[in-house]
Fold each of these.
Amino acid sequence: MTESSRWFHARPAAGAAFGALLAAILGSLAPDWILLLLCALLVPVTAFLFRKRSALFLLPLLMLLVLIRITLLPEKLSGDGAIAQFLFRLRASLLGNADALFSDEAAAARGLLLGDAGMLTASEHAQYANVGLLHLFAVSGLHVTVLVGMLSGLIRTQNRALGLGLLTLFLLFFCAVTGFSASVLRAAFVLIGFRVSRTFDRRPDAPSIFCHAFALTLLVEPFAFRKAGFQLSFAAMGGMVLFARAFRKAFPKRMRSLRIASALSGASAATVGMLPVLAVHFGALAWASIPLSILLIPTMPVILLCGFFAVLLYGIAPHLSEILSYPAYGAIKLISLTAQSLDVPVLRLPAPQPWVIALYFLALLLCSPLFLKNRKRPPWLGLGLLTVSVLLWFLL
């Protein structure tokens, strides 16, 4: 197939499914039947598009299972089983350990380590939200990446299959102790997808991995699409998949290899993806969130490595846990003081209509490299639709 005859540039099948799944996220802002309809339509569409691609035949099957799961099974499966009760008690025990170790910062420690922000007071919640740091309390890709990096450093093996198995077991354990939140499930499935690609010497395809993570997350938590965490998590990742590399290319060549360029481009792309979802759920954007998050990211390895081990080991070796908790406590205190001391004005955003959000994401897809026939030309159609969607957003 020649370049001029393609609809859009690279990996057309993955790009089409990626667009359909982003549309399914938008369905969460409307009645449930829209998501069911999109799942039903996606099954034959992906079966047609992926019929010649070796690994991607799984996506139609997964989406069919999601459709069956949403339609026929109850919202929550029974939690009376022995495994469910064990996991519940384990999580409760770890939360109690966090309370004992971090005293006055226990509420923040619960959120940063185990994804439980329920003990934050209304004023604390508002302080973290106003400076754009509330996302740190939704255990997500950053937390999972740091912990997996730690595990990879501790366990080195030449057997790729064994490494993949150990990684999967660890991620399942971490998902369990953090309550199987959508953001953790998404991050776990994405990391496993990349490791599977490397295990079988295949080039990782980020859009395809995104699609599979979406389907698997809905399979585990089928009605998670109603929650803000699910929508924000996948919208942020969608923005990074589409635009992180393009934003990074905007930096001078000598700066592109720096970590600051990677962090800024990733955070900016995620914000672009999340913007309308943020407007729907919070009605505001903390403009300081990107620089503050980048400045405080170096504290996360300290919090996670020291704090998570301290919480895990407290019942076995309390004195060692207390020693490990000191660096984590200092890092948590730094984040807390930052939120308390800064008074940053936020940008108020009106809640857009669902069809305006759909137009916004369609414009993003048409602006992305996946949908560009010629990358040397500006995406005039996408930019035009984006301008129209933003105008309609603020005028209607």
Amino acid sequence: MKTKKLYSAVLVIALLALNGCGEKQETQRVSLPSQSLTTSSPQTESETQALSKDSISENIIIEETVCEPIMESMDWSSYFDGLNGSAVIYSPGENSYQIYNQELASTQRSPCSTFKIISSLIGLEKGIIVPEDSVRPWSGEIFWNPDWNQDINFEDAFRASCVWYFRQVIDEIGADTIQKELNRLEYGNCDISDWEGKLNTNNSNRALTGFWIESSLKLSPKEQTEVMERIFGNQSGYSKETLEELKNVMLVSEEKETGLSVYGKTGMGKEEGITVDCWFTGFADKAGDQFYFCVYLGESDGKEISSGKAKEIALDIISDC
């Protein structure tokens, strides 16, 4: 009787395990002791006891089912108007990606100032940035952006994309912690080997260079959306306080009529004076539905690109979704 009950329980477990997602299901394997499959032969008490809970757990192997995400190729060419670019919208709730220009969406490029999302995240979480006491003194050096030529706090530095401010933050966080957090976030190639940014051919001022600006660190537009989900999604391991502070500085637009709020950061990089990378990435909340986006623009024959244009394209696509 005990053996029959055990056999029935195993069959139930096996049947439950076979209920998959439909799209794609990995092979499921159930391995049982040979005695447990025999119900016609009587078993001794010792033989029955041998089929203990530990024995069952060691011999039953059920491989986890995997749902492949839905990959939808989109024709968003009208938004780009001939510019070389890509757009990705990732919706974890629907397990789906909408992608324009799949090849470019999978190409790793320098994150440039979109990395300020990451340096802010780590700086806030580790106490390097304390929003109410975050002013850093200006060195007196005249930079090309007049908004950087002053003592500046965290919020203003983020919105003005002040490189020297976040260069200091990153140095104070340190390479070991940065590397650990990039690995945790699976941030592209996770390569911070060019810490000072000496590979950058556009600028030799070490207050304005780093591994994230046309240097060793790279990730793709698709990876950008996945990193955003790891930060702001339901399984985020970061504190509520950190995420609220980060959302505050990332807020771009809020429409009460439609219930749409957009949070993001631009980024732009040059090589030898030519703009080669432009980004706008982040997430949107539409009536309680949260999704993640990235628009990337690369070199375009005869046409100028800018991070402002990437932002404009992203907002148009998001509004029409």
Amino acid sequence: MKSYYIASCLFTARFPEVSLAIQKYIDARYSMDVVRCCIPNFRVKPNEERIPEGEAKAAWRALPTHAELKPGDTVYSLCHNCTNIVGEQHAGVQALSLWELIDRDEAFVYPDYSGLVATVQDCWRSREQKAEQDAVRSILRKMNIQYVETEKNRGDTDFCGSTLYREQPAKNAKYAPKHYVEQAEGKFLPHTEAEQIEIMREHCSHYATDTVICYCHYCLEGLLQGGVDGRHLAHLLLPGFEAAAF
């Protein structure tokens, strides 16, 4: 039985320095194998080319493209697509979130946000992952953040940024049909970019706080489109790395 961390192609392309910092944490704390993607040899060259030149890209090139998963293995990731695909494609493999791993690390040093009041926004893609949702809230408390719940939270959330209002990548429906076909009725219907932004602005107008914290890069995209102070949990855990503009 082995444990792996999937670094996520898209998260790494958008936030290469943060992704590299997480990879270094995983290696130093757990000596866990780090791989790029949940799908064997998926768009290897295009995904690599999206990462800017520098230390993060050099480290990415050294990573295996995927893990040869076997029953009894455990996979951690901050990408909900990876979690769902591993869960549907690999029977007997446990797919968990990075947040669960960090939450149970008694040696992790949490930054102190001095009672920051923020809304926590759950993700539709991880609506079934109660343990992940619990870990996120535990981490927020450890960082001295007072969080406010949304009206539709946890398993009832229907938010994943503007991605639910445009066509999804074919790989999601192919490799995780339960999540992205059977349970996605009314989702991933094409809207214009202007319509997507308007939907995000309407959604964000209902938050009770200026700052909204998410743990999904798609959700973050939607929060920023909606005009709020959107923060990704990874950036809060690793201060000094700023969220990129979308």
